[in-house]
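User: Batch of two.

Assistant: Item 1 of 2:
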Amino acid sequence: MKKRMFILTFAVTVLLLTLCACAYAGQPENTNEPGASAAVSGEFIISFDYERISGSASNQYAVWIEDMDGDLIKTLYASRWTAGGGYRTRPDSIALWVKKSNRALMSNAEVDAVSGATPRTGKQVYTWDLTNANGETVLPGEYIFVVEGTLRWKNYVLYSGVIEIGNTPATVQADADFVYEASDRYGALTGESPENTMIGPVTASFTPMER
């Protein structure tokens, strides 16, 4: 009797283990980590008109992506003069990017990878490859895109918007926040100042890749 009960118990145990294994095999892979199968793919573009301003202490800008907590995910572009060390002599130049990127801790290679010469007047286009600074593909969700421009000394403009990347195309125009502040050398700009045309409007668009 005991032997028969043992055989029955053993058979039930094997059956349950087999069922659990089959159920687990049918489950999708864990997609909570960057680079997992649920990671998004597609084309992400930030574009805007740029007008080069004559004179000093202007024409510096940066473009980057943040998560919804405001942490920088990846820099797409930063003006070479500031990124290359000009932020030390002129701390008002794209100051938010300098802070968020921890520029003081960046290596020369990291600076070279994101910085570039000041462009000529015309339409500027920057592409995000949907990876973070470590090269890991991000997951679907909402992200903040930011363009910061130094208009003249302490005067600057900050464009920002939230866009969702996933399975649906999206286009978002950023909101603009102009900050006018006088410096030791110059007075504050105004809403009529020609420097206001340096950057804008800023638009981000996402087109998912067909599978």
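Item 2 of 2:
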Amino acid sequence: MMNREKEQLFDQWPEAYDQWFTTPIGSLVKKYEAELILDLLNPEKGEVILDAGCGTGIFTLDILSLGPKVIGLDISHPMLTQARKKLKGSRFGIVLADMLHLPFSESPFDKVVSITALEFIRDAEAAVKELFRVTRKGGTIVVATLNSLSPWAAKRIAEAKERHSIFEKAIFRSPDDLRSLAPVNGAVKTAIHFQKEDDPEKAVEIERQGERRGLNTGAFVAARWEKK
């Protein structure tokens, strides 16, 4: 997709995106995705972290709560406007830019995270290369995207064809696909083992079982790498 296409794709989505996470099942999705991200990223006070593709800042808030300074980057101005309102008063700055062309010098960040943005970038390897470039030596890179091995992927693709949703443009990748994008080995985990239609109380137990079994079919797949 060209830049303007990507901008338009997200420009109408800020309100709907945030509202989804206030639903009973959406709030569970948010809880388990945030827990996985924080476990892999381990944000610490005093660090400077880039949140590439930060959207409305829905996950940025959790990162900020642990004390680092965060720069939120996104290609959509409406998304960043929503994030700035939500995170007003926090150690948070915004940058309007494309993940494939990060407007930063070499290695200014202690850690870099990108959450559910990679699925809208065809050249994922180039995007991950940019994330590595702006991370200091010994720093951490965490990337999370939508898992092609999950039943959620098939349903989202089918729904997109019927309703012409944002997922028409999404590229779903497997844990192995994600793992292969970086020049170093990394840890890969998945979350969200329940389905959108599941009862929230039952979903909690389903998630526990999926985590205990180490399933690679969760809807949300995240990788953690260390820059050598």
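The mean pLDDT is 93.
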